[in-house]
Amino acid sequence: MTGTGAVTVKAAAVVTVVTVVTAVLGRAGGWWRARREAARRDAGMSTAEYAVGTIAAAAFAAVLYKVVTSGTVSGALESMIGKALDASF
User: Fold this and answer.
1) CA–CA separation, 17 and 2 (whole Å)
2) Which domain holds residue 57?
3) How many angstroms separate the first and last alpha carbons of the chain?
């Protein structure tokens, strides 16, 4: 086929496929459309959310550093590393 008739047939085929898929999906199709729309509305974090996330990550890193460098945890880590290095194979 050539000309506009071929384009019309292809467009009709695409519409038919979309109609069949929508009918098969039923409620799942509606869920998927709603999820896609929600993703478009909530495209990512704003600058304020990035700032809060960065501060929270820095605070967590500070707490983790204090815990790991404390005497008890430091001693336990040294003991585990020593046992691992002295292990016989």
Assistant:
1) 22
2) 46-89
3) 74
0.85 exceeded by pTM: no
Q: Write the DSSP symbol of residue 86.
A: T
Query: Residue 63: its pLDDT value, please?
Result: 94
Same domain, 76 and 58: yes
Indicate whether 80 pLDDT > 60: yes
| Residue 76 and residue 68 in contact, taking contact as beta carbons nearer than 8 Å | no
Residue 26, token pair as written in the block: 């039923």
Total number of domains in the chain: 2
Give the pLDDT confidence of 47-67 residue by residue, as tens digits: 888 899 999 999 999 999 998
Exposed, middle or buried by CB within 10 Å (0-12, 13-18, 19+), for 4? exposed
